[in-house]
């Protein structure tokens, strides 16, 4: 009768290289995969966080339309005319004082001066299809109809028209891309 004695098997050097060399860590391939995944994730986050100038254009045009509509209602309700004017990088509202002169509304919470975001500007203002000259205002009348007006807001890639009718309705029309 033969008795079999199992032989001791030596561990393979290929499988035990970390213990033999005394180093633990990641392979180059593993590090590259992690870097690629992080790069893709960071790129997706950056795209989501970057504001689109068309979104800012739409929001500012809608805000301006609401403010103009409210200013016209305020003028009619109070019996005192208000006005609007474009400035370098924004716009402001005006009211008439007791002497009939236009004075700026600086301390009013709703009709305070407003600055436009960077890259957005007022490129054209017209009343009854006639361009508004620098220093002129769009008068929002208290007892008569406001003449039709158009205010063009533009970015590098798009523009929007804020138009007011003589009935007091103010609307926004977004144009398609102008430069691509």
The gist of it:
By secondary structure, this protein is α+β, with helices and mostly antiparallel strands. It is built from three helices and ten strands, in the order H-H-H-E-E-E-E-E-E-E-E-E-E. The protein is rod-shaped, with a radius of gyration of 33 Å.
Strands, total number? 10
Radius of gyration: 33 Å
Largest sheet at a glance? 5 strands, antiparallel
Shape: rod-shaped
Count of individual domains = 2
SSE class: alpha+beta
In the CATH scheme, what's the topology name of the largest domain?
Answer: minor pseudopilin epsh fold
Task: Provide a descriptive summary of the structure in words.
The chain is α+β, with helices and mostly antiparallel strands. It folds into two domains: 17-49, no CATH class; 53-174, minor pseudopilin epsh fold (3-Layer(bab) Sandwich), CATH 3.55.40.10. The protein is 29% helix and 26% strand. It is built from three helices and ten strands; from the N terminus they run αααββββββββββ. The strands form two sheets. Strands 1, 2, 3, 4 and 7 form a five-stranded antiparallel β-sheet that branches. A hairpin with a 4-residue loop joins strand 8 (149-154) and strand 9. 21% of the residues are buried.
